[in-house]
Specification:
CATH architecture of the domain at 9-79: Orthogonal Bundle
CATH class of the domain at 9-79: Mainly Alpha
Strand content: 15-25%
Helix content: 40-55%
Strand order of the largest sheet: 1-2
Order of helices and strands: HHHHEEHHHHEEH
Distance between the termini: 112 Å
CATH superfamily of the domain at 9-79: Winged helix-like DNA-binding domain superfamily/Winged helix DNA-binding domain
Oligomer: single chain
Radius of gyration: 32 Å
CATH topology of the domain at 9-79: Arc Repressor Mutant, subunit A
Structural class: alpha+beta
Length: about 210
């Protein structure tokens, strides 16, 4: 049979008893959680010294941290006299932000995209998508993966991101100098052909107009 906790005399007020009673039933509770269930004001708990008094007597300890606005800022309390859980540091494995959620939602909706396309469809700035570290964090967490690679018109390869976990597509080898020269010549040839075609169309149009006048 569960025995109720024996409360030391200095903390035997009705409010203290309600606090300990709540924590006997539930663990990992924030000050606001305790306040709502123990009917003790938040300011009384935090600023009035109730939490500090209970911690000093080793009746409660910080058993975890709640993430708020992307940061572990809210301590959670449980019964016990063990050492407090240290506040976790934010890194790629636990980072979160509305922008990251926006990227995932965009990939879910539009499919595989480069970072430039993600910026275009998500409404995030190109600088945010490219330099915020959001993509790296999402990759570490397995919320997205590199599904493919796409070569830009200037040669460098850009990752194409896909939603969800998955094996990263291997990055193709960089173009050799000879391949880059060949691509450049091909672009010049296509451009020249396009210019020539435009000239032919313009000449044909002019001829049609002249025939119509005659």
């Amino acid at each position: 049979m569960h025995q109720p906790m024996k409360i030391p005399e200095p903390v035997s007020s009705p409010a203290m008893q309600r606090i300990l009673g709540v924590l006997e039933k539930k663990s990992n509770m924030s000050v606001s959680d305790i306040s709502a269930e123990a009917f003790v004001g938040v300011s009384t708990l935090a600023c009035g010294g109730y939490i500090a008094a209970l911690k000093k007597r080793k009746l409660i300890y910080v058993s975890g941290w709640r993430k708020v606005n992307g940061r572990f800022s809210t301590p959670l309390y449980s019964l016990g006299g063990v050492d407090d859980v240290i506040r976790p540091r934010i890194d790629d494995s636990n980072r979160d932000a509305p922008g990251m959620q926006g990227i995932v939602a965009t990939l879910e909706r539009y499919g595989q995209l480069t970072y430039r396309e993600i910026a275009r469809f998500s409404g995030l700035s190109l600088n945010t998508v490219k330099n915020s570290g959001f993509l790296d964090a999402l990759l570490v967490q397995g919320r997205i993966h590199i599904g493919d690679w796409r070569r830009s018109s200037h040669g460098p390869m850009s990752p194409v991101y896909a939603c969800g976990p998955g094996a990263a597509a291997p990055k193709p080898q960089s173009l050799t100098s000879a391949q880059k020269d060949s691509r450049h010549r091909s672009r010049l040839k296509i451009a020249a052909q396009g210019t020539g075609l435009s000239a032919q169309i313009a000449s044909l149009s002019s001829s049609i107009k002249s025939a119509a006048i005659d």
